[in-house]
Hints:
- The protein has helices at about 10-20, 40-45, 75-95, 95-100, 110-125, 135-160, and strands at about 35-40, 50-55, 60.
- By secondary structure, it is mainly alpha-helical.
- A three-stranded antiparallel β-sheet has the order 1-2-3.
- It has two domains: about 5-60, no CATH class; about 75-160, no CATH class.
- Zinc ion binds near residues 27, 30, 53 and 55.
Amino acid sequence: MPYYKNEENVTNQNYEPMNEILSGKICPYCGNPTEYVDSSVIYGRSYGMIYLCRDCRAYVGVHKGTDQALGRLANSELRKAKKEAHFYFDQIAKTNLINKIWHGYIPGISNRNKAYLWLSKKMGIPREMCHIGMFDVEDCKRIVVICKPIIEEHGNERNH
Ligand SMILES: [Zn+2]
């Protein structure tokens, strides 16, 4: 079971390692501490810092200008799954499509945040735990299952 879906059973004892996974400090695959290194280790040129587990070939970038990880470390399978999830989710979150599928007006919220709120309800997880950077492969596949039919439906509308 993914580590964040068990909210009600969370105790202080197991909450800390979860935070350390989501903040990139611990590798979710092997459980070892990660290294904080320049991304040139991976890419050959620098795109900023990353949290890296060499053994698992897993890594994650940081929010610009901080040492804050974008989420948990991802291996190549998860990186691929996240890319696909973003491909579909972004077509809802980065366009006006979210306002077409959810007419409710929420003051002071960006389309992107509204889309994440919508997604968290669809997936049945708390909003603060709903970010693609925090998701595993199964979660990413669920995003595709949720978003793809909506995009196809609205794509068809345009063609009529
Ligand atoms: Zn590892």
